[in-house]
Amino acid sequence: SSELTQDPAVSVALGQTVTITCQGDSLSRSYVTWYQQRPGQAPLLVIYGKNSRPSGIPDRFSGSDSGNTASLTITGTQAEDEAAYYCSFRDRGDNRVVLGGGTQLTIL
Amino acid sequence: QVQLQESGPGLVKPSQTLALMCTVSGDSISSEPRDSWGWVRQPAGKGLEWIGHITPSGSVNYNPSLKNRVTISIDTSKNQFALILTSVTAADTAVYYCARDRYLGLSTRRGYYYGMDVWGQGTTVSVSS
Asked: Closest to A48 (Cβ–Cβ): which among B61, B111, B113?
């Protein structure tokens, strides 16, 4: 299966560290890309490749993976990090893009 | 910098065809052959759904769940790419985004990797009679 599974919702206290996970059978063979989407805005690429950030993305965002689970970690969360986060990968077999269902992060 | 702008009707009748255009500015749509140009949609209050993408050479890939109804085309001379979705129903009501799916690198173990690094602002399409 090429589906990606994310927890629907996660919460964290302001300033603490949170990890958002993404599970999928194909993840051991592909890198996961992470997107942030704030309400009313288009998604924003935050992590790609092994653990790379586009220009302008704070270094409190980091990515990792182990086996069939990829993780996005936000260290020292800020209020502006409250958003939905989506994982994604490009299927190496048919070249399609697979998106996870998204995780809504709430900052307490 | 590269910018994308969606355009098209905001209201489509059931069973008819949805047609959207994405205009690319700030760079040539053909500048990187390994990039793809794609469409993603999002029903109100729900998650993102990938629709499909096309390379500058015209190679396409579609979401299997939409494959029978969707066509994506590209006009490199106009720096535009388009989405056609036929036989629409209320379930196709969503915000539609166009995006550049950028080639970002190659890993010997994980293969090519990409990321949608530039997005349009999104356009709302409602399907209703």
From this structure: B113
Length of chain B: 129
**How far is it, in rounded angstroms, from Cα B30 to Cα A59?**
32
Are A45 and B115 in contact (CB < 8 Å)? yes
**Residues in contact with B88: Cβ distance below 8 Å, sequence separation at least 6, in sequence order:** B12, B14, B15, B16, B17, B18, B127
The answer to whether the beta carbons of residues B35 and B104 sit under 8 Å apart is no
3-state secondary structure of A8: coil
Which of B47, B52, B101 is the closest to A101 by Cβ?
B47
Report DSSP state, residue A60.
T
The pLDDT-based confidence of A94 (bands split at 50, 70, 90) is confident
**With bands split at pLDDT 50, 70 and 90, how would you rate the model's confidence at B94?**
very high
CA angle B83, B93, B71 (to 5 degrees): 20
For residue B99, give Cα distances in angstroms to A5, A24, A76.
23, 24, 30
Per-residue model confidence as pLDDT tens digits over A5-17: 999 999 999 999 9
- When pLDDT is cut at 50, 70 and 90, the band that residue A2 belongs to is low
Contacts across the A-B interface (CB distance below 8 Å) = 76
What per-residue confidence (pLDDT) applies to A28? 82
Q: Which of A83, A35, A95 is nearest to B61 (CA)?
A: A95
